[in-house]
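Kindly inspect the following:
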Amino acid sequence: MKDLKIFATLGLFTLFFACSKSGTTPTPVTPPVTPPASFSFNALKVNGLNNGFNYTNINKTPVIKISFSKALSKASVGTAILIKDKAGAKVNYTTTYEDNDNTIVIKPTLAVISKYTVDVTTGLKSTDNGNLQSALTINLTTGIDSTDKFTAISDNQLLDLVQKQTLKYFYDFGHPVSGLALERNTSGDVVTTGGSGFGIMAMVVGVNRNFITRAEGLARLQKIVGFLKNKAVTFHGAFPHWLNGTSGAVQPFSAQDNGADLIETSFLMEGLLTARQYFNGAGADETALRADITTLYNNVEWDWFRQGNQNVLYWHWSPSNGWAINMKISGWNEGLIAYVLAASSTTHSIPKIVYDNGWAGNGSMKNGATYYGVKLPLGPAQGGPLFFAHYSFLGINPTGLADAYANYEDQNKAHAQINYNYCVANPKNYYGYGADSWGLTASDIEGGYTASSPTNDVGVIAPTAAISSMPYTPTQSMAALKFMYYKLGDKMWGPYGFYDAYNLNNPWFANSYLAIDQGPIVVMIENYRSGLLWNLFMSCPEIKTGMKGLGFTGPSL
């Protein structure tokens, strides 16, 4: 026992000596610091409703309530919760708090028909300095302002206004040298042959409705026809898609498309022949104009575009690439007018077999299916873009018109009705589609251009689609025209009529005008009102003979 005490005493002495030798004392262990616990998002309501993180048709002053699992540090809100518009510009907002500061109430002031994001970042802090676990983004799209943007006028006054203002694109905004229509309002010297044909028909309307005088209309037609006759390049009598409006040289549409375009030529001839029939005065000026137009039409070697006497017409030919594009004009699309004009030519006609085989595919262009409750005689599923029912029928009167393949009044009415019914049904749930806002056709879209249709629907409505369908769907077309003018007029109505297109679902409004979209608006409103262009074009003796030869029957023949 004594030895054990001695051993313990020696141990303590040794320990004391060792500590004294080092000259230090043990460092106390600090307990770990526990960081503030993070917190989480709990709930969201916009104007009292929860719809996930996407909200459309929102008013200009929405109330956004976001709830969290902890009380918020108000000092962190200004940098951690940001509202931005589509261009990235910050939007100011006011805040209040509820539920012991666990809920923030945000009240911004927004613009109508605009897209916004509310970004809540992980920089948001709680009162105990914790951070939000996960960021969140709320998407807001504001709705339209339903107030009228213009004073109400009668339907006839509104139709007059739309025709007159849209005509200005072609008359006031025509190329200064050639008089031809610019492809679009930003095209500089690039003019469009097909769009000019539509514009010529619009100018006939302008003269007939006293928007411009007969002398003014005649002078513009003389300028255009003189340029086409003396300056513009042609290939076997056919014109290219685009021309330089000053020199008359080809402006290539694409690398291989730098020569003749038979469809654009057809649209041009459709307009010229209509003008020829209208300017029927006995004076020397109008007599000469008619003769020059007839010469331009007779110069087109329609039969040569059979590419070696095949029983089909070809769309393009290039002086450097020949038939490289190799695109047949086959139905159903906008190309009927080419076959009608080719069959009607007194100098370079085509036989009926070219129409039957090349255009109609001996019946293969028939459809017969029912879409949205409407049977479609011809063409692709659900009808395709609406310009199929417009471009050829600016001049060709479909009323009671029939041949072996279809009744063309039924065809165009069905096509327009299907397009309307599709937009009302709105299978893609786009905001802004409905009975007053419909019409899918080729137009500008944000960042590009596309041929919209029920099978290629990107959310963009083009005014020309519904308005140019007025002869087929008068009630629905007038409702759309009024909506676009009265409700969207602050964004869609400009110096040359309606801008090209709009998207209310992902808000965007074109600031562009396209000749091929503007022209049909003037022309088809007039065909609905008076049948003027139909009567003029169908009065051409060549057309009567040619269409009868293709097997067409109807009251206009």
